[in-house]
Amino acid sequence: xxxxxxxxxxxxxxxxxxxxxxxxxxxxxxxxxxxxxxxxxxxxxxxxxxxxxxxxxxxxxxxxxxxxxxxxxxxxxx
Length: 78
Ligand SMILES: [Zn+2]
Prior knowledge:
The structure is a single chain. Strand 6 and strand 7 form a beta hairpin. The strands form 2 sheets. The protein has a 4-stranded antiparallel sheet. By secondary structure, it is mainly beta. Helices cover 10% and strands 40% of the residues. The longest helix has 8 residues, at 38-45.
């Protein structure tokens, strides 16, 4: 498995079945609610790539995998 550098990660929050970001990595909007379903989250945890469209700035985050706290993407976010 190819290691993804930590600067390609971004933390997410899950609450009441909704997935959101405390801050958008692209435009710094706070408390961004995504349209990502729990099913989609489970798929990225199984390393199935997911393209997430940010509702705040319409950027697309390509998520390669996820753990319980972070999305691991194909680009440098920090
Ligand atoms: Zn944004």
